[in-house]
Amino acid sequence: MCWSANSEADLGHTANTEPQSIFPAKGLKKLFNRQQVYFSSQAQIECIAPLFQTVAETPQPVQAAVLGTIPAWINGSLLRNGPGQFEFGDDKYNHWFDGMALMHQFKIKNGSVTYMSKFLESDVYNVNKSKNRIVVSEFGTLASSDPCKSLYDRFMSKFKIDSTDNCSVNYVLYKGDYYVSTETNFMRKVDPETLSTLEKVDWTKFIAVNGATAHPHYDPDGTAYNMGNSYGKQGTRYNIIKVPVQKSGTEENLEGAQVICSILPQNKGKPSYYHSFGMTENYVIFIELPLKLNLLKILINQIKGKAFSDIMSWEPDLPTLFHVVNKHTGEPHPVTFCAQPFMSFHQINAYEDQDCIVLDLCSMDGGGAINMFSLQNLRKSGQALTEIYQKVPKSYPHRFVLPLNADTNSKQETKYLNYSSATAVRKADGKVWCTHEKLLDDTLKYGIEFPQINYSKYNTKKYRYYYACGFQHLIGDSLVKVDIETKQTKVWKEEGFYPSEPIFVPYPDSAEEDNGVILSAVLTPHQEKNIFLLVLDAKDFVEIGRAEVPVKMPYGFHGIFLPQNSK
Fold first, then answer.
1. Which residues lie across from 3 on neighbouring strands?
2. How far apart are CA 517 and CA 422, in angstroms?
3. How do residues 432-475 score in pLDDT, each as one tens digit?
4. Has 558 been labeled as part of a binding site?
5. Of 14, 153, 248, 509, which is most buried by a Cβ count within 10 Å?
6. What is the DSSP string of 184-209?
7. Which residues are involved in binding Fe cation (predicted)?
8. Contact at 8 Å (CB) between 289 and 367?
9. What does the alpha-carbon distance between residue 313 and residue 322 come to, in Å, rounded to a whole number?
């Protein structure tokens, strides 16, 4: 087991002013021996193929073996989502994103942990299972033709494009109900207590969008905001969606949802792909990326037998655009903010300060990462796997400062905030060009992704800490805590294990930003070892406990912590 060499003093704290950890240290150093982390440039990276193989569900709770301490105040469930089945009969999926959704639950109560998992009983899963083949196309896999149909019917079926309800990306909350979500127009309502699949919900029945992201944002009162594209007579639009928190007994699902603003793409025939967006107290920030979707190729690819993923193209000659919209009035800000081309999947946080929007995100220079995550690549080993890793663009945390009232007279790049090196300058055409600040010091030599914060208290607010997965592999192989003020890091890493997205759970009624725990499902490709739920003290990033389970769990995407009293 490895630990960061950074001490609390490294994070700008002194021994007599640093608040004491909320966890007892007695006996823990003996159980979890702290060591320094030494990252070496390995000739080859470890094979992770078992983390991308079909597993059986665990529909009944299994008691986990606890090592160390699971704090008694943690009372709730870590819910995870991701692919769990990668073939039906002789048909095999091509891409990591394609596998059938498998929902996971680590339930924590009174210091003990149980684990269970269930496949999402989506329409797609059920029809694939009944036909024993892939019937509905996914992101990287085109469905096979029905062998029972005539040649003519099989040809005509190429002109029909079905949307999947394989909601394998995340858990989302609307009006007090929990759903699993992907990026199509369908979500599935689920029972987070039993992981039972409930009704299918179609966004198009409530508002004019053809899909929505799996990363909504929430106001403190529970009002939800999201984004989704629409394709119709008016052309392509990026739409900002608002879902009210109010719910009556007669209301149906997303009743009351509305589009508060529609944004025109740079090119109507080639809108941008996006996975998430930013939000402050008063604004939504949509990032129009140079990763484009060629709409004309959708039908052509269907006829040619190519998957949806083939319509994506990285166009580095285009800038990245930031669209700022007042979320209360729906009015777009009159200024267009621009930056050099980059690709981004996840924002860290955004807030307003001194008439500026501060937008923190993880970004990479190239747009080819998505297609690199084919199952064929992820299942490679030895030098072939190492070469794939070396080709994947690395993701780093960056800060952009968008001045809402940029100086029209200055022709030089200006720092608008005294605590950030990010700059902006207004050009002759009225556009404001922005350059980023690095949110990480140079001692960490690898990329990070899956960023998380103390969301319940610091979303849309100025903050100091974020947590993420470190990527010295194609998937996360460490957990990282970053102090934004000092740029220094703390790292948890254990060889042969791969942690999931770190979820912050705050200590009850604490006013300190990092007073709580980090929860992560830690997986391994080694058949003789168990997966486990990891619990870190978020303040000093020391492991205080783990709960081992003798099951296999594929590497997934996102999750949430659901306190027991929330449902």
1. 36, 492
2. 31
3. 999 999 999 888 889 999 999 999 999 999 999 999 999 999 99
4. yes
5. 153
6. SSEEEEEETTTTEEEEEEEGGGTSS-
7. 215, 275, 346, 558
8. yes
9. 20
pLDDT score of 156 = 36
Is 215 marked within a binding site? yes
Does the predicted model carry a pTM greater than 0.85? yes
- The CA distances from residue 352 to 171, 322, 349, 554, in Å, are 27, 15, 11, 39
* SS3 state of residue 159: helix
Q: Where are the alpha helices (DSSP H) in 89-158?
A: 123-131, 151-156
Ordered by start, the domain boundaries in the chain are: 49-563
- Distance, CA of 115 to CA of 109 (rounded, Å): 12
Contact in structure between 482 and 397 (CB atoms under 8 Å): yes
Residue 217 marked as a ligand binder: no
Rg of the chain, C-alpha, whole Å: 23
The reply, when asked if residue 323 is annotated as ligand binding, is no
- Let me know the angle formed at the C-alpha of 483 by 479 and 484, rounded to the nearest 5 degrees: 120
Q: Given the structure tokens 């039906």, which residue do they identify?
A: 88
Q: Write out 367-380 in H/E/C secondary structure.
A: CCHHHHCEHHHHCC
Distance CA 385, CA 469 (A): 20
Task: Tell me the per-residue pLDDT of 332-358, one tens digit each, with 9 for 90 and over.
Answer: 999 999 999 999 999 999 999 999 999
Q: Name which of 347, 342, 320, 336 is nearest 404 in CA terms.
A: 336
Tokens of 408: 């029209």
Q: Token match 């995340």: residue?
A: 170
